[in-house]
């Protein structure tokens, strides 16, 4: 159901994007430094985020008259109520291949919460190829067969209210044009794509939790950490078998897939860079152990024990990266999200599938995120 333009304009002034989170984090940290400077020498520097999201002109909104035919996509096997035992992929790892990361800073500042969480140890394991049983081949076959509707999609913004654990979704027309135009996608497309993939493939699967891109951004700023729990609480992450954490690092998208029951983190970087793995795996482990401990302290039921040590393995070999271009990292993250919510650990999609995967995602987003109807 479409949303009226007046209601959309009233709704979207609330920051809902990763861009806004970066600006808020930088402003808050700058204010903290200013107050501390009169007493002590402030040493932390605020990470300057990008400017606020571009406002959408009224003239850009057009009424949608075409009903898209839902893309024919196969549904993966239903997820079991409990995950099967993770494959023992550590048997051939020698002690000298395991790297212990540096311990991060303490978690919550005292003024935010009285829960103290010791930073977990993170063992960075080398790449090991995922077996065919854990590779999503059906989606690749569907993407290869997919043909978009003959009528070009109309221009205009998309908007959806909070639903199914997702906050409000706002997608500017320029973001959709970038998706179809083979350009780099922003956080609006990534979050809308995740929500649409869930609706299409896993609407009744309650075994996973999906964080928003700016949840991780807030966590990296210590003064914002207390807000993260409130942001992710609707996902009931503490009882889920799989937790997915999309990460936007400057101009590059990566994804962490955590299995708290097994204290394991799969780390996906389409370029296979070790630097991203080392930095973000330890931050994600600290984030999740802290949130799990906080959930238990607040009395929630069915909370997984907070791991004191995690194993993290990259899903992409640095000598054989999935991504060969410079603009498809966000698309690759969405491909792994699709595989994860369908019960797999990696995707069979390849670089040559990305153009058609863009068309597929564009139709999927328009199918599940309603258009904004302009004022009459």
From TrEMBL:
Keyword check for Protease: yes
Entry's Gene Ontology BP terms: protein desumoylation; proteolysis
Keyword Repressor attached: no
GO CC annotations, alphabetized: nucleus
Superkingdom of the source species: Eukaryota
Residue ranges the record marks as coiled coil: none
Transmembrane spans: none
UniProt keyword annotations, A-Z: Hydrolase, Protease, Thiol protease
Classification via Pfam families: Peptidase_C48 (PF02902)
One GO MF term: deSUMOylase activity
InterPro entries, sorted: Papain-like_cys_pep_sf, Peptidase_C48_C
Ranges where the Ubiquitin-like protease family profile domain occurs: 169-340
Family: Belongs to the peptidase C48 family.
Name of this chain's protein: Cysteine proteinase
